[in-house]
Design goal:
Layout: E1 2-6, H1 37-47, H2 50-60, E2 74-85, H3 87-91, E3 99-109, E4 115-123, E5 126-134, H4 137-148, E6 153-157, E7 162-167, E8 170-173, H5 176-182, E9 187-188, H6 189-200, H7 208-211, E10 250-255
Parallel strand pairs: 2-6, 5-10
Antiparallel strand pairs: 1-10, 2-3, 3-4, 4-5, 6-7, 7-8, 8-9
């Protein structure tokens, strides 16, 4: 499990908070409709593009652990789908899945072993990298979920940074935050819905919360690594200008080594 905090302010970027209305300065990027082979290939091309690798060199060198020239970033493996809690599920829409696809992620590794996730999404200009986050959460929890519940859907509840795997009528925790939310043994799908409805049901699009300009939902705890600035969670998916030049948002993540089911 990780806590995320902004480590750069060059651009606005974030994960979606239940489809809340975006702030005026942020432009929503539509979620990919499906993790098709075509979409994965396009995401992988964006992740491996020369401009992306150049940005990664600066990213990995930002704390002086390795020089920009020596970083030599590489992309390992293919792009994977990353799912988040679905606002339709919280709203109780018939047939809504517990999670929806938010973006595709590719793993980047530097010459000194640093790792990062490249978040890719389809923008008006095509598939582009819209964010870099330190660590390997997306990939590690995908593996944990597949081992814990084969065929299940791994997803993140970004409001509390909790990771789960859902399958059949069960929702099982994959990290400490998820254990605190649903218990070590998990919960039923209906039980999980009751919890998220209570937590977020009054914050959906069209609510007084959203229309009052409160898109954002929560701030990082003061002890989170990084600047401690609020995480801007806006509607419609990942939001940010595509990476390029010096403009990108780096998300620093504090690792908690213990994880449920590991």
């Amino acid at each position: 499990m990780t806590l995320r905090a902004t480590a750069a302010a060059a651009v606005l970027a974030a994960t979606a908070l239940l489809g809340l209305a975006p702030q005026a300065s942020a432009t929503p990027v539509p979620q990919p409709q499906a993790a098709t082979a075509e979409n994965k290939a396009a995401a992988e091309r964006a992740a491996a593009a020369p401009d992306t690798l150049a940005t990664l060199s600066r990213f990995f060198a930002r704390e002086g652990k390795v020089s920009q020239a020596a970083a030599q970033p590489r992309i390992e493996g293919g792009a994977i789908p990353v799912n988040h809690l679905s606002p339709d599920f919280v709203a109780g829409k018939a047939g809504a899945s517990v999670a929806r696809l938010e973006f595709l992620a590719s793993k980047a590794v530097s010459s000194d072993g640093q790792q990062a996730a490249l978040w890719t999404a389809r923008t008006e200009a095509g598939w582009q990298v819209v964010n870099i986050a330190t660590g390997d959460d997306e990939f590690r929890y995908a593996q944990l979920g597949a081992a814990k519940l084969p065929g299940g859907t791994v997803f993140r509840e970004p409001q509390i940074d909790a990771w789960y795997v859902a399958g059949g009528s069960r929702v099982l925790p994959l990290d400490e935050d998820a254990v605190r939310a649903v218990g070590a043994g998990g919960t039923s799908l209906s039980g999980y819905r009751a919890r998220v409805v209570k937590a977020y049901g009054d914050k959906l699009p069209g609510s007084a919360y959203a229309e009052g300009g409160m898109a954002g939902g929560f701030a990082e705890s003061p002890g989170a690594e990084g600047t401690g600035a609020p995480v801007m969670l806006v509607g419609g998916g990942v939001v940010a200008p595509a990476l390029g030049g010096a403009g990108f948002l780096a998300l620093r993540r504090r690792r908690r080594h213990a994880s449920a089911g590991a």
